[in-house]
Structure formats: C-alpha cells, structure tokens
C-alpha cells in the first residue's frame, strides 16, 4: 500500500522537491457530510469508511508529512441538515469539508462557504466534492472554494453515448432517473447526445422517480417492458438503482441492457448477481479490477473493512491535498486552493488535471460490463463471483465538456 501511495505522489507534476515542510506532523481535520440514515445509509457508510481508510493510509506516508482526521456527520441527504452539519464542523475548527451524495446538499455547502469565507478572513473553508455531479456546480453556480473530483453528468454521458453510438443493437432507449437535478441532467444530456450521435435511436420512455423514496420499482419495470425498449439509461444510485435492478430481475426482463452511472455502488452488485451478467454497463473513472493503484487500494480496503472500494475520488482528494500542502508549505485553504488550480498528475486512470477555469477534474473514463470474475479480473463485488470488466477506455479529451463558469476569485 505504501508503494502505491509513493508512486502516485511521485508522479504529481511540478512538485517542489526538497521544499521545507512547515506543516510537518500537523493533523488536518476533514468533515465528511453525507447520509448515514435512510435508504442511502448503506452507500453513505461505505463512502465514510473509504474516507477513513484512505485518511489512515495517507497519514502513514504522504508528501507533506501531515496526519488526517475524519469527522463524520450524518446530513440525512438534506440541504438543511447539511448546512447545520457544516456549521457544527466549522465550530470544531474544520477547514476542509467533503461531500458527494446529492447536488442539493452540495449547493448548500457552496452557498454557505461563499458567505462564510467572505466574512471570516483567515478562517476560510475548502470543499472537495467527490460525487455530486450536476454540471451547474462548475458552470453557472461555480465557486472558487469548490473542487470537483468526479466527472460531471455531461462528461459521463459524452463517454457513454460515444460507446452506445457504435452498438447497432441500441435502437429503443428508456430513460429512468431520480427526480432531482442530477436525474434531470442525465435525461437531458442523454436525449441531446443520442440525437446528435445516433439520430435513428428512439426514446421510448422518460420517467422520474422520487429520490430515495421508492421501495418497489415493479411499476416502472412494467412500463419499460411495455415500451419495447432494448436499452435503459439511468443515473440512479444507491437503493434507487439496486431496487430497480432487482425489480428487473424479478420480472424476467432479460432482453434489455442497462447503461448506468453507479452500477458498482453498495447493494447493486448483490441485486444484479448472476442474472444480470453481460447486461449491465457502467461509465466511471474506475472499476474494481483496474490494474495498478486502484485495485491495490481496493484489496487493502476489502481486507480491512470487508467491503468494496468504489469511490476512487477519495484517492484523488488525498493525493491532491497532500501535494498541495507540500507545494504551498501550508495547510491554509487559501494557499492550498491557489496551488490546486491547474494541478496535473498521473493517477490510476491516466493523467488528470484540475481545470483552473471551473475546478472540474479532467480525467479518463471507462465503460465496463458486469460479468463473471476471471484470471484478469479476480476481484469480485459483494461476494457475488461477478465484477465489472473494462470494455472501453476514453481519454480525458473525449469526455471533456466546455464550461460557462465565470469564477470570482478572492482578492
């Protein structure tokens, strides 16, 4: 594990070799604000453990010589609860906050930090977004204090539809998504990009389901079946995807392929099982058996936590922070933000860049397919004997989308 961390740290471009470590030995508190209750609790718990695990590993060895402490607070997937949790974290001296589940909570953090940082010079707080993917967060609503480590909804759809345009079997597509910003964006971009790349494809359904409220997706599956769709595109995550897949299997929907954003998230592998082999695809910046650093981290995580690591953006977060601490010779968020802008480094999915204009990480994306494990893909998910296997890799430029961000930088 230490070898993996050293390898990534050494690959960061423009690092300041031999820089003095003004923050050597300092403990950096990071507040994690995401759901630990409700239908998304299992997913949130996995991601909390991912941050805790990587904090322990990076505390052992990192370019800046700092230690990390994770302060986990349940935000109940609510923007209001998120604001209260953020306030509590800042009262405890936290100056770095991470969150990923839901664009509503993400916006609540961004709005709160814009006000707090303007009024409290010297006590600024920085937000690392590891999974909230609404494109508006790095476009019309972009903020200097927000850095997104995941690829946004439009970037993932660029890669996914680039793949689908070369699959002749795709003729009738059904869209089913969660009824909030991300779900609406998935639907919007799917229709726009398929029309541009495959104008012959027919959209035969476009449903929105309440976020984290539906316990039985059988009625939605019945509509998909009736539509004659051969493919489903969904940005659903957590229980909203696992229950959707379960309903599809229960209904014997065997002739439809599912193209997902979050097929690897907690509960979905178990719901898929052997029945979904060869029928579920995922677009993401990683997959379980990705050779090199990511799979090595995954092995260590599974051995210690008895769980699967699927949120690789956690790794990106610590890699960027520790290098920025080193180069800034400080853990001050103001100095660190200035260093992280435009930072490039070689990570598990190729060379990545934190684009300066909008703070959106530019990175390579993979299309993978659910299938049985084999010699090249030995790590299974949720003890199913199955895993996601790579079918295509796209360089960052393929999925990169333009930005309208007009960022206001602190003087």
Task: Please give a handful of descriptors for the protein shown.
411 residues; Rossmann fold; 2 domains; seven-stranded mixed beta sheet; five-stranded parallel beta sheet; 13 helices; 38% helix
Strand arrangement, major sheet:
7-6-8-9-10-14-15
Tell me the fraction of residues in β-strands, as a range.
15-25%
SSE order: HEHEHEHEEHEHEHEHEHEHHHEEEEEH
Number of domains: 2
CATH level 3 topology of the largest domain: Rossmann fold
Principal-axis shape: globular
- CATH-derived architecture of the largest domain: 3-Layer(aba) Sandwich
Question: Mean of the pLDDT scores?
Answer: 94
Describe the structure.
The protein has 411 residues and is of the alpha/beta class. The chain has two domains: 2-151 and 310-362, 3-Layer(aba) Sandwich (Rossmann fold), CATH 3.40.50.2300; 154-284 and 364-399, 3-Layer(aba) Sandwich (Rossmann fold), CATH 3.40.50. 38% of the residues lie in helices and 20% in strands. It contains 13 helices and 15 strands. It has helices spanning 2-11, 41-60, 79-91, 103-119, 153-164, 181-197, 218-227, 239-250, 268-272, 293-305, 313-328, 333-340, 396-399, and strands at residues 27-34, 67-74, 96-99, 126-129, 146-148, 172-178, 202-209, 231-234, 257-260, 280-284, 344-347, 350-354, 361-362, 365-372, 386-394. The strands form three sheets. The chain has a seven-stranded mixed sheet with strand order 7-6-8-9-10-14-15, with helices on both faces. Strand 12 (350-354) and strand 13 form a beta hairpin. Helix 2 runs parallel beside helix 11 (313-328) and helix 3 packs parallel to helix 4. The chain is globular, with a radius of gyration of 21 Å. The protein starts with a helix and ends in a 12-residue tail after the last helix. Mean pLDDT is 94; it is low at 13-22.
